Amino acid sequence: MSDVKQLCRACGTELIHDFADLGPMPLANSYPKSLDDAKNQNSYPLHARVCSHCFLVQVEDSVPAEDIFSDYAYFSSYSPSWVEHARKFTEYARDRFDLGAESHVVEIASNDGYLLQHFVAAGVPVRGVEPAANIAKVAEEKGIPTLNAFFGDETANAMVQDEGKADLIVGNNVLAHTPFIRDFVKGLKTLLKPEGVISIEFPHLLKLMEEVQFDTIYHEHFSYLSLEAVERLFAEFGLRLFDVQEVPTHGGSLRIHGCHRESDREECLGLIDVRTKEKAAGLDRIETYSDFFPKIEHIRKQVIGFLEKAKQDGKKVVAYGAAAKGSTLLNYFDVGRDDIDYAVDANPHKQDHFMPGSMLDIRAPQAIRETKPDYILILPWNLKREITEQLSFIREWDGKCYAPIPELHEVPWT
Question: What class, spelled out in words, does domain 301-410 have in CATH?
Answer without folding.
Answer: alpha beta
